[in-house]
Amino acid sequence: MSGFDEAALTEAYERALSLEKSGAHAAAAEAYRECLAIDPEDHGGAAVRIAAMGLGEAPESAGEAYVATLFDQHAEAFEDILVRQLGYGVPGLMAARLAAIAPGPYRRVLDLGCGTGLVGEALRDRATTLIGVDLSEGMIETCFDKGIYDDLYIGEAVGFLADFDDDEVFDLLVAADVLPYLGGLDGLFSGAAARLAPGGIFGFSTETLSEATFAGRDFMVGPHQRFHHREAYLVDRLAAHGFDCLECGPIVVRFQEGQPAPGHLVVARRR
């Protein structure tokens, strides 16, 4: 991080965290707003923390700076934390549902938010060419060392989709654990439709809460600073961008503080 007063940001952020943990949410939100004033790119995720406390509108995304910082910090221990400690099983669920609904094989596969390559490992035998992209340089380094992907890129999912040449398309596009860092989904779904061949498959996971919790909203930031989406919003936006939803089934994404984190596994086909 550079270009701002890091000491001032650290002081404001630690103060905000302390206030939030003590239950002084209004004061914590003010301290997080100080963080945003110091660091407008929001490497610490102040905006999603304000929204998680219900004291601000949910942003359109968690922000590139925050997501890259978060995953760079956890790259080395990522699989131990996510798989062994939190019971994250989306890659295996994704592979199983694709095998049942749209087994392939696939000539070209794009793994958005590839992380350390868990989905890539699950789908490698079905892909002639497998490409991965992630915001975190640390994650990409781990993927490179595994030798799973044919090509790897550092980039943000929506922007990466927009940067491809018009004639460069894929047969399968997957995005496991990407939507919890995005609010509005039009950019992602539009980009996916543009990069998929007609009849191409789009598989992704998302997280959700009870219908009453949304209070009429399409998406919101939950208590763990992750975005949650209503099932009806997912299906509506997929249809608006030219997809037929083949399956939108409930899953347990992982366990958070011992409690199951509910979500959906979605498989859609571009018309």
TrEMBL record:
* Family annotation (CDD domains): AdoMet_MTases (cd02440)
What GO molecular functions are on record for this protein?
Answer: methyltransferase activity
Annotated keywords: Methyltransferase, S-adenosyl-L-methionine, Transferase
Q: Name one GO biological process term.
A: methylation
UniProt name for this protein: Methyltransferase domain-containing protein
